[in-house]
Design a protein that fits this description.
This protein is α/β, with parallel strands linked by helices. Helix content is about 40%, strand content about 20%.
Length: about 400
């Protein structure tokens, strides 16, 4: 199976050995970050640094001034963690050793946007804003995300893109010093805490026959036993219906699914309009449409009719591939995303077996997270695993 390794520009730029090291792993492709959220990352082999702090979400190339002139919502340029056209510099070096380069674009996940433009954020039923989570129902936000997708995806020389966070973000968020795990919420509680009550979503619920004030009250009432320590639900969508009531639950999901599906359609169309022929467009995806996060909740049949395929989280098990495999037509890409950094919960030493299991469940390609973060021992295990898997 074709394999691609995730990489940041700062893993490559300033390290003349990095491109050959990546090619030596046995991957045919790298998925290189072009627009990314804030992070603090190790660079265990870099000759100039060991830790890179990306202070805020940013493009890792200079955004086009003509595209963004006069607009309130614009991408942020990176600071000294990725100066100039960091993406372009790294992409050229990787292409020089024969690797295909695809862009990695993070979209609806941007804490600086939420801090500077609070009205763009998801607002929960208690009135709390989630600055990391732009509300994808708001027209201006949708236009911003669609244009960012087209610009960041179609960088010079790129042969495809992988769009992350192209859907709803909610309560769950990997955040510095996070203290939100004290009460087990389960899928149902996470959904209720991720429902948005910004003006656009309140109006949207009205189009589905719901009164937004009554809905917010119902959400708070449903969550009261959870805060007292009761189990949040019996799991899955049935748990949401149990907490909120079947009619109200399904009405909220209809609104949110529509906003996510139409945004995905618009973003993919914008990328294709800007891209050369043969450009591959994949979405990081979860096959349960009411899930939130980096792997956007999608309807498998719909997303495979819109994009060329999906990247599916498979660390710890490849079961999420099955709903996509059941809907995939000829030529659809189902990429199993496996964490290969042992210190981050990955299992690089079982890569060959994990790849075989993913293939049995329908995977056509592999994604390896994350070559720049992995130790030398992890990379050696990846090299051996890919050799055994081919």
């Amino acid at each position: 199976m074709k394999a691609s390794a995730f990489v940041y520009p700062w893993d490559v730029n300033g390290d003349p050995q990095a491109p050959a090291r990546l090619a030596d792993l046995g991957v045919a492709q790298v998925t290189l970050a072009a627009a990314y959220h804030s992070t603090r990352a190790l660079t265990p082999r870099h000759p100039r640094h060991r830790v890179v702090t990306a202070e805020h979400a940013a493009t890792l190339y200079p955004p086009d001034p003509a595209r963004w002139q006069g607009r309130a919502l614009c991408p942020y340029e990176s600071g000294d963690w990725a100066p100039g056209d960091a993406y372009g510099e790294a992409a050229a070096a990787l292409a020089d050793v024969g690797l295909d380069v695809h862009t990695w674009v993070v979209l609806a996940h941007n804490s600086r946007l939420g801090a500077e433009h609070p009205h763009t954020s998801v607002v929960n039923a208690y009135g709390d804003r989630y600055p990391w989570a732009p509300c994808i129902a708001q027209p201006a936000t949708r236009a911003y995300l669609t244009d960012l997708a087209a610009e960041a995806a179609v960088r010079p020389g790129a042969r495809g893109t992988e769009l992350e966070s192209l859907g709803w973000y909610g309560l769950a968020h990997l955040h510095a010093h996070d203290k939100t795990g004290g009460v087990p919420l389960g899928d149902a509680g996470q959904y209720l805490m991720s429902l948005c009550f910004c003006p656009d979503c309140r109006a949207g619920y009205g189009t589905r026959g719901l009164d937004a004030d009554e809905l917010a009250t119902a959400v708070r009432t449903a969550l009261e036993p959870v805060w007292r320590g009761a189990e949040s639900s019996d799991g899955g969508w049935a748990g949401v219906e149990k907490l909120l009531g079947e009619a109200a639950a399904n009405a909220t999901r209809a609104w949110r699914d529509d906003r996510a599906r139409t945004l995905q359609e618009a973003a993919v169309s914008a990328v294709r309009a800007a891209a050369p022929d043969g450009f591959q467009v994949l979405l990081h995806a979860d096959p349960v449409s009411f899930h939130c996060g980096a792997n956007a909740g999608v309807d498998p049949g719909h997303v495979l009719a819109v994009a060329d395929g999906v990247v599916v989280p498979c660390t710890g098990g490849a079961g999420l591939l099955t709903p996509f495999a059941e809907q995939a037509g000829d030529g659809a890409v189902l990429a199993a995303n496996l964490t290969v950094v042992a210190g981050m919960g990955g299992s690089p030493r079982t890569l060959a077996a994990d790849a075989a299991r993913a293939r049995d469940l329908g995977a056509t390609e592999l994604r390896l997270y994350h070559a720049g973060l992995a130790s030398d021992g992890d990379l050696e295990a990846v090299r051996a695993g890919l050799g055994a898997a081919t």
